[in-house]
Amino acid sequence: MVSPEHFTGEVQIPVIDIRPTNSDAPRQLLQAAAGYGFVFIEPWETGIKQEDVDQMFELSKEFFASPIDVKEEVSISSNKAGKNYGWLSQGVEKLDPMTQKRPDVKEAFNVGEPVGGELQQPLPKPLRPHEQTIIDFQRKCHRLCQRVLQVFAIALGINERWFTDRHDEARGPSGTMFRLLYYPQIDTIEDGVDIRAGAHSDYGSITLLFQQRGGHPGLEIKTPSGEWAPVPVDPVQHPVGSFNGGIPKEQPLPILVNIGDLLEDWTAGLLKSTVHRVIFPEASGGDRYSIAYFCHPLDDALLEPVPSKLVEDHALKSGRKLARDGKLITAKDHLMARLAATYTVK
Ligand SMILES: O=C(O)CCC(=O)C(=O)O
Ligand SMILES: [Fe+2]
């Protein structure tokens, strides 16, 4: 792997097989997380099938193509949807409020965690018949997050369940959020002004990001030298139309995982929550769809330092502390502060 100090605008985000059969997975994952903070996970045995992802994109497209009144019904600013859940029209979110002149050119639909097998918010008409499909997908995402967190714990030499216990849905609520994203193509893009998602880092512990097979790119990460580097939709570049014994190969895409602020804080900066954004790519015009699963610790999880020798050593070097006014903060305190800075919900 190229050392992060020597970026030239091109980054090679590693693709890692995290199945238990890969005994080197913890080391590889830690190295990637401490370097770029972004990593592709081989889809094999993750529990998430390509057809699950394809189906979610179909549902997403159907929803965003619905008439405005269908979307308004579940608007994030309506009382019905509940805080932070529901549809965000264009103009609601500005992920980089210090620099952006205009809000992100996107729409989103936020879905909170199901409780007792049911979503805690109304679904829009086109999605209503598919509630179970959505819940199943959320579950699969959560399971994959837990596996990734378990591999991190192994890599850090702590109890395998240190992170997963603190993300155990059965123990209480969390800020975990499932999000459908739609970035429409617009006719005139003002250079340096219009952006699909402003520069930001994610708030939670880890994020799963699903990009669409054959879809438009646009995601970029900020390298340590301050340059923007594109993240591919398909890092393996599966040949289109390759055949396997006469049967066309439908290769599943690796799943992009990135570290969020909470995991960075928890590890005193050893794992990196890298700043990223979504642009209108010059070479590839068209609507972009993506699906994100933002995994958060339980609301009342204290952001105390992870009891790992590697983290301790890093904390000594970086001088980072987790206390605020001498008091440890919870995952919820952290999330509330971030949301307040980036949303304009009227
Ligand atoms: O759509 C994407 O590719 C990235 C979205 C993202 O970074 C976010 O919503 O936090
Ligand atoms: Fe993000």
From TrEMBL:
Residue span, Fe2OG dioxygenase domain: 173-297
UniProt keyword annotation of Oxidoreductase present: yes
Gene3D superfamilies hit by this protein: B-lactam Antibiotic, Isopenicillin N Synthase, Chain (2.60.120.330)
UniProt xrefs under Pfam families: 2OG-FeII_Oxy, DIOX_N
GO terms under biological process: small molecule biosynthetic process
Lineage, opening ranks: Eukaryota, Fungi, Dikarya, Ascomycota, Pezizomycotina
Keywords: Iron, Metal-binding, Oxidoreductase
Tagged with keyword Nucleotide-binding: no
Name assigned to this protein: Fe2OG dioxygenase domain-containing protein
InterPro entries in UniProt: DIOX_N, IPNS-like_FE2OG_OXY, IPNS-like_sf, Iron_ascorbate_oxido_reductase, Oxoglu/Fe-dep_dioxygenase_dom
